[in-house]
Request: fold
Amino acid sequence: MSALDAIFKRVTVRHYEDKPVEFSKLVTLARAAQKAPTGGNTPYRRVMIIDDPDTIAMIKKIAPGYLSNAPAAILIYTDLEVAEKGLGRLGRDVCSLIDSGAAAANISIAAIELGLATCFTKSYSEVGMKKVLDIPDNCRTDLLVQVGYPHPGRPRSIKKKPEGNIIYHNRHGVSIND
Ligand SMILES: Cc1cc2nc3c(=O)[nH]c(=O)nc-3n(C[C@H](O)[C@H](O)[C@H](O)COP(=O)(O)O)c2cc1C
Reply:
C-alpha cells in the first residue's frame, strides 16, 4: 500500500473487532510515532504502548472520549523540562504539541498498512491519566490514540463536514473547491 493510499483510507474508527493487537504491531506504531519530527531535534517526546486490559479499563473510567472497545492505545506525551531546556517556552507550549500531533498522525497512517484502525482521544482527565500510568509531574500528556482491528460491519460513525475539506490557493478565501 502506498503512503497516499493509507492517508486517504484513514478514518476515525470507534467499533473494533474483539481481538487483541499483536505487540509487535504496537511496537511498529510506536516507532512510527518516534519517527515524526521534533522542533530543534529536541528529544522531549515520550511514547507509551498500553495493552493491559485492566489498564485500558481504568483509562476508560477517566476518559469520556474513549468511546470504543479498542483493546490497545498509544499515549504521546512530552517531558516539559526537556522541552523548555531545549527550546524555551516555544518548545514547551507550542512545538511539542505540534510534534505530538505529527507523531499521532504517523501512528494513524501506519496503522492502515497493518490492517488496524485508530481514534485520536483528547477527552480525558489529565490528572487521572497521569495517575493510572505513573507519569511524573514534569510530563504533559498530549494525545491518546486508540488502536484495534476495525469492525468490518461498522466502519465509521461520523461523516466529514464539507467545510473541513476547503483548500485555498495563494490567497485566503480563494478556494480550489469552487
Ligand atoms: C485533537 C483531537 C482530539 C480528538 N479527541 C477525540 C476523542 O476524545 N474521542 C473521539 O471519539 N474522537 C476524538 N477525535 C476524533 C475526531 O472526532 C475525528 O477526527 C473527526 O470526527 C473527523 O473524523 P475523521 O478522523 O474520520 O476524519 C479527536 C481528534 C483530534 C484531532
